[in-house]
Specification:
The protein has 456 residues and is an alpha/beta fold. It has 19 helices and 16 strands. It has 4 domains: 132 residues, Response regulator (Rossmann fold); 162 residues, P-loop containing nucleotide triphosphate hydrolases (Rossmann fold, 3-Layer(aba) Sandwich); 69 residues, Orthogonal Bundle (Helicase, Ruva Protein, domain 3), CATH 1.10.8.60; 44 residues. The strands form 5 sheets. It has a 5-stranded parallel beta sheet with strand order 2-1-3-4-5, sandwiched between helices. The chain has a 5-stranded parallel beta sheet with strand order 7-10-13-6-14. It has a two-stranded antiparallel ribbon with strand order 8-9.
Length: 456
């Protein structure tokens, strides 16, 4: 309770004092305001956890609803409890419709008030906890893997991290473009400043400019903080830059060049110092050719181009990724770590990962939800979701005739084993020989001797 600060808003000081006394006795920290504008100032300068506001204040029968609307835009996680002495079903319905946590009719019962406050703050804390977990789980800044392809990406990131060079990261969806951008930021001189994501695909054409540039409403004295301002002195990452409208792409060029911009409704130029990193699932050259990425923006962004490989092209990283994700996710979701059988590892290495690293993360989360309450649980192929078990390359049944002499049984095993490993590494002799611990020339001889067929 000591960290929960509650704001009481009512134009009657006696009401503020009454509620303040009730909440203070229960251990809450309380602030008071007597109008919407005064409440906004308190919200902007204090860490308010919850707002309790009257509706009809200062001869304005909708002032409480106006404050509610402002609060939802300012911080949607802050619960707002609406109260009124003119309690009607219509008021209660309007409160719920506009996003209020609940409606409290005056004169109110103190037990009812305390119950609603406790319940609202518990739900708020739960939402924040879930968001923090998801952020930590999904927004990693570690590039994980031992393959030569991912090591090359990591080395490039390390080299460019200390510069202010603009970077264009391309790669298939779910391959880890944002992780790459966060990794660069974490090593840069801007590491102690914000990393802000502009999710271009989710920005509507109507809202994109307001979110990027902000706007100044002089009439209502309302000034929104733009994404550029939020990222000042840090890094702004444009996720799926090709989904940004072309006219906004043109404006972005000016921001990149001048490191300044104008808010809508304002003639005052705002200077900023930001690093721009962009990501795209398109082939950048094809995106320019197809008219979804401005050519002039492409050349400004791709001072340092980085290409992220698909998970299918670096299958030797799958075991490392599984172990790393399991370590993090089991702690976040408070589950027991799972053990994977060798056959399950082999199956996952031969699977066609259309969703790349993100799909692998989803699998780990699913497995923890299903089996994470059991101790020392070993994941077999039968425990995987249906889409994994149905893959044509995922059948590894070894039915050997135990009546065979050991020499013949060994040949059958060697043939099946080497076929599996060669298919696992897409016919790459070098990778297979390294994994199985066999010289390349010896592996070639075995392939010929055992008449091994595999996909190339």
């Amino acid at each position: 309770m000591i960290n929960n600060k509650i704001l009481i808003v009512d134009d009657e000081p006696d009401i503020c004092d009454l509620i303040s006394d009730i909440l203070s006795e229960s251990g809450y920290t309380v602030n008071s305001a007597f109008s919407k504008n005064e409440a906004i100032k308190v919200m902007e300068n204090s860490g308010i956890s919850m707002v309790i506001t009257d509706i009809w204040m200062n001869d304005n029968e909708k002032e409480g609803f106006e404050l509610l609307e402002w609060c939802k835009a300012y911080n949607a996680l802050t619960p707002v409890l609406i109260m009124s002495g003119h309690g009607t079903i219509e008021y209660a319905m309007n409160a719920a419709k506009n996003g209020a946590y609940d409606f409290l009719e005056k004169p109110f019962n103190s037990d009812r008030l305390l119950f609603l406050v406790k319940k609202a703050l518990q739900e708020r804390d739960l939402k924040i906890k879930l968001m923090d977990s998801n952020n930590e789980w999904l927004k990693s800044n570690h590039i994980i893997g031992k393959s030569s392809k991912i090591k090359n990406v990591k080395n490039i990131c390390i080299k460019v991290s200390k510069s202010n060079s603009r970077i264009l990261i391309s790669g298939p969806s779910g391959s880890g473009k944002e992780t790459c951008a966060r990794f660069i930021h974490s090593l840069s001189n801007r590491m102690n400043h914000p990393f802000v994501v502009a999710a271009c695909a989710s920005l509507s054409n109507q809202m994109v400019d307001q979110l990027l540039f902000g706007f100044n409403d002089s009439k209502n004295k309302n000034d929104t903080k733009s994404l550029f301002e939020q990222a000042n002195n840090g890094t702004i990452y444009f996720n799926e830059i090709c989904d940004l409208p072309l006219d906004t792409q043109a404006k972005l060029i000016n921001v990149i060049q001048d490191q300044s911009f104008y808010k809508y409704g304002s003639n005052k130029k705002i200077k900023i110092d930001i690093r721009v990193i962009a990501g795209t699932s398109y082939d950048p050259n094809e995106a320019v050719k197809n008219g979804v990425l401005r050519e002039d923006l492409y050349y400004r962004l791709s001072v340092v181009p980085i290409s992220i490989p698909s998970l299918n092209s670096r299958i030797e990283d799958i075991n490392v990724l599984i172990n790393s994700f399991m370590e993090v996710a089991s702690k976040l979701f408070n589950k027991n770590k799972l053990i994977f059988s060798n056959e399950t590892y082999i199956l996952l290495q031969s699977f066609n990962w259309k969703g790349n690293v993100r799909q692998l993360k989803n699998l780990i989360e699913w497995l923890l939800i299903m089996y994470g309450n059991e101790k020392n649980f070993q994941v077999e192929i039968s425990h995987l979701p249906p889409e994994f078990k149905s893959n044509k390359n995922n059948e590894h049944k070894h039915n050997y005739d135990l009546n065979l002499p050991i020499k013949d049984a060994r040949k059958i095993f060697e043939k099946k084993y080497l076929e599996t490993q060669l298919n696992r590494f897409k016919g790459n002799i070098a990778q297979t020989s390294t994994f199985v611990g066999m010289d390349r020339s010896a592996l070639h001889r075995k392939i010929k001797e055992l008449d091994i067929k595999f996909e190339k």
